[in-house]
Amino acid sequence: MNKLIFCLLFFAFLSNASAQFDANYDESKVPEFKLPDPLKTFNGKKIRNSKKWESRRRPELLNFFTQNMYGEVPGKLEISSVDIQEERKSALNGKAVRKQVDLVFKNHGKTLDFTILIYLPKTEESVPLFVGYNFFGNHTITEDVDVVISEAWARNNPSFGIINNQLTEQSRGVRTNRWCVDKIIDAGFGLAVIYYGEVDPDKDDFSDGIHPLFYIDDQQQPAANEWGSIAAWSWGLSRAMDYFERDEDIDESKVVVFGHSRLGKTALWAGASDERFAGVISNNSGCGGAALSKRRFGETVWRINNSFPHWFCKNFRNYIKNEEALPVDQHELIALIAPRPVYIASAEEDKWSDPKGEFLSALYATPVYNLYGKKGIQQTEMPELNQPVQNTVAYHIRTGEHDVTAFDWEQYIKWAQKFIQ
């Protein structure tokens, strides 16, 4: 009998655990919640103009997100050296210039470097630029055989020929569909990409990547309020921006940071924390990115911190199954980018990323943009599929799944041509 009771209790436990892993995709089960007002300070004072936003509200919001979600970078570290691996004046069938640039960092006896692959249209003028991370190496975004294959750790993906956590030639060009390099160059923009694993390998291990360069004494991992991987990847984007300011071929005043999925979360945080970026594009970024946390739809604060405990600072775990206690939400992350342009994009089949929650964040960030006389999202209902709303705050939801498509890039380019000035 004791064995029977034990078995019943054990299966009940498994059933309950399984239920906890089930994501909610039913709007009727979204809990009631009240969003914090981006134009009201934590102590209840109303913000009525951009000057007060910048002096009072923006700093306290930025500090909260830093200390309780993404984590603080524990110090400053400048580029130790820049190594131009190669520069070719006639790439992509003669229409572009290609550069492969190594940025090297040294601190506390440790060294880290990462490579920026840059394509620029052939012109005598400095050009605007999209910059973003890729998931499986710079060589995956193009079939260009001269792009160097990274030796950094990578997540295994046998379909791409990635085994034993090592990138290989077999994966060259497997993600060309996500980057539309020719469309970008033809539109007069440059493109810079970085393999995110070179800045911080995407695993729950803070013994490699950029973190150890900042450790003090016998420190083994970041403190509870210090940076997780998303903030580390954002840090890397800012260091790339340091380089762009030196490169005369790039117009550093017109650099747009782009990211998809977890790297969309990264792009939003980079744009919020580094005001040098002229614009931000978040593609299917979901929980911890553009989607409202309080909706508990699709991926949740609990799930993301359990599945990827290294992405955020440990303090964020205080809000696991406790989203109602958050004094902020992701619409205020988007508001931190104001008055610079921001584009939030969703996909119809990507319920995990909560398209409605992403749209609502763009909508409820709009009052802050209005302080600057900028136009945001004015309609309260989501737009029709494949019908973008393109203002300073832009949004679209397209047909399809969690991915980056040619349709997405066509909208981003059109929007950037109008709003990145």
Automatic annotation (TrEMBL):
Keywords: Hydrolase, Serine esterase, Signal. Residues 225-373 form the 4-O-methyl-glucuronoyl methylesterase-like domain. Residues 1-19 form the signal peptide. One of its GO terms (molecular function) is carboxylic ester hydrolase activity. It holds the Pfam family GCE_fung. It comes from the Bacteria. This is Acetylxylan esterase. It comes from Draconibacterium halophilum.
